[in-house]
Design a protein that fits this description.
The protein has 523 residues and is α+β, with helices and mostly antiparallel strands. Strands 1, 2, 9, 10, 11, 12, 13 and 22 form an eight-stranded mixed β-sheet that branches. Strands 15-21-14-20-18-19 form a six-stranded mixed β-sheet. Helix 7 packs antiparallel against helix 9 and helix 13 packs antiparallel against helix 14. The longest helix has 21 residues.
Length: 523
């Protein structure tokens, strides 16, 4: 309880510091005519905006309106040109010629050219291996990239076919930056987006953003105060009090319902393509398949998703891909439906028993004490708490290790966990190919390895036929279900909530796009 109070106090103090330090009013400043937006949002990776450092840092840069990519997704998750104007691809899907839009400039005034695009990809190739963003998931490092500034084209020749390279290049990790003039890749990358950083106010505090004077369209706000608020209650209080005008992803169900009833606020919800899931670390005690199977049978996923604290924000499920996607969810078979008595029996039969009567089962003479890494976002800690309680009922000990999103990422990358709870966009490249790489031997974070899965994954890389790709993805899902690779929280719906000071805002299905020119002040 003390920790929760501390988090709330810190969040409120951070808001007060921002408001006092900036001195701006929301909407239009009556003295200067300056249009200002106060935006409360979750902090990821200490607020860093370097695409290569880790996946979240790249998302930050795009979400804050700093960077853009060659392509983007509409709300049907269809790929559309963004910085690109058009592209052509050969029959083998190994040579892509991308024509850029003309006249686009970076926020420093430099023209976007094919050479600048190539410099970005070269930077990702050189620096990617040191971070956890893994840009090679989206464009292989073996690809040959050629820039023709006179023709305004980029040519990408790959060693293997890509069914959807445009979608791969739409991922935030692949956003285009002015590598030559970016001096601080942590908190000052130069992009082509509508906003740019004026000041980083510190970890846990936020940014002051200003309009990009070289942007190709009208930018609605002169200034945006990004205020980091990890706690959903802090977001609610700040929005209700008028300290912020806009927030993303309030996760208290009762608060969302109250905002929906209140005519002074608008709630915009995107259809869910996110999956909340806990990795299970195969490099450790969870290498034991019987233990993993019992864990899944010991957790009542449906009841958790329908609880008062979570109900409506997550749809229950058992696969790593949401049931709303067209990858055969209804045909999948779940061998680990909730059955605590069966979970206890398979543990007993495997000799995983409690010999000293302390309520915790043992393996090799030691109590099972699993380490559960999680963080406060999208109700992840709520799920983790519930999982820990369910596991205790079947004799499996588990301790919470909760921190920031940065803690979660670093421990995931280092393999320092038994469970690691997080929430991923599943079709972040237009289909699940990059997401399914999370369980391929060469690119997994959890030391999972299955030759049958790898064979299907490698076949998926080169398969161009949509129906055949869907069938491969279906088969891959069933292997992961059978192998009990993860605890599935459920499938999440994203949201934005805003006051009457904002005339329009929208949360996208691919929630790479937060601070966009679609967000406008009330007239």
């Amino acid at each position: 309880m003390k920790k929760l109070l501390s988090v709330v106090i810190i969040a409120v103090l951070s808001m007060s510091m921002l408001l006092t330090g900036c001195g701006e009013n929301s909407g239009s400043d009556s003295n200067s005519g300056e249009k200002v937006l106060n935006f409360g949002c979750q902090m990821y990776s200490d607020g860093v905006v370097n695409s290569v450092l880790d996946e979240n840092a790249g998302w930050n840069a795009m979400r804050y309106g700093i960077t853009e990519a060659l392509f983007k997704f509409n709300d049907k998750m269809e790929v559309e040109p963004w910085l690109a104007d058009s592209y052509t691809v050969n029959d083998e899907h190994t040579e892509w010629v991308i024509t850029l839009k003309k006249g686009i400039k970076f926020s420093d005034g430099d023209l976007l050219t094919p050479s600048k695009v190539k410099a970005t990809f070269d930077y990702l190739k050189k620096n990617g291996p040191s971070g956890s963003a893994k840009p090679e998931k989206y464009l292989e490092f073996e690809a040959q990239v050629t820039a023709d500034d006179d023709a305004n084209t980029i040519t990408i020749v790959t060693s293997k076919p890509y069914a959807n390279l445009a979608g791969q290049l739409a991922h935030p990790t692949m956003a285009i930056i002015d590598v030559e003039h970016t001096k601080n890749f942590d908190n000052g990358v130069i992009g082509t987006g509508p906003y740019m950083i004026e000041k980083f106010k510190g970890v846990g505090v936020g940014y002051t953003m200003v309009k990009n004077p070289n942007y190709r369209e009208d930018v609605p706000y002169d200034k945006v105060n990004i205020m980091f608020m990890g706690d959903a209650s802090a977001k609610t209080m700040a929005l209700q009090s008028g300290q912020v005008d806009l927030v993303e992803n309030i996760t208290n169900v009762s608060d969302i319902k109250e905002f929906q009833k209140n005519k002074d606020f608008t709630v915009d919800i995107a259809s869910g393509v996110r999956c909340g899931f806990s990795w299970m670390n195969f490099k450790g005690i969870l290498e034991n398949k019987t233990l993993r199977q019992a864990i899944l049978m010991g957790i009542d996923n449906d009841t958790i998703c329908k609880s008062k604290t979570i109900g409506g924000l997550y749809t229950p499920g058992f696969s790593v891909l949401p049931s709303t996607l067209n990858y055969g969810y209804d045909k999948l078979k779940n061998p680990y439906e909730y059955n605590p008595e069966k979970a206890k029996k398979i543990l007993d039969d495997a000799g995983i028993v409690d010999t000293n009567g302390d309520g915790i089962r043992e393996i090799d003479g030691k109590n099972i004490e699993l380490r559960y890494v999680s963080y406060e976002n999208r109700l992840l800690n709520d799920f983790s708490n519930a999982h820990i309680q369910y596991l205790a009922e079947i004799g499996i000990g588990c301790k919470a290790d909760y921190g920031s999103s940065d803690d979660q990422w670093s421990k995931l990358a280092a393999g320092e966990y038994d469970f690691n709870n997080n929430n991923w966009t599943t079709v972040g490249t237009g289909d699940p190919f990059a997401y399914m790489a999370n369980w391929a031997t060469d690119s997994t974070y959890c030391s999972y390895s299955n030759p049958a899965y790898d064979k299907l994954y490698n076949k998926l890389k080169g398969e161009m036929n949509p129906k055949k790709r869907a069938d491969l993805i279906f088969q891959m899902q069933q292997i992961l279900v059978d192998d009990a690779v993860a605890i599935i929280d459920g499938y999440y719906n994203s949201s934005m909530i805003y006051s009457k000071k904002v005339g329009q805002a929208h949360i996208h299905t691919a929630d790479y796009y937060w601070l966009t020119t679609e967000i406008k002040p009330a007239s």
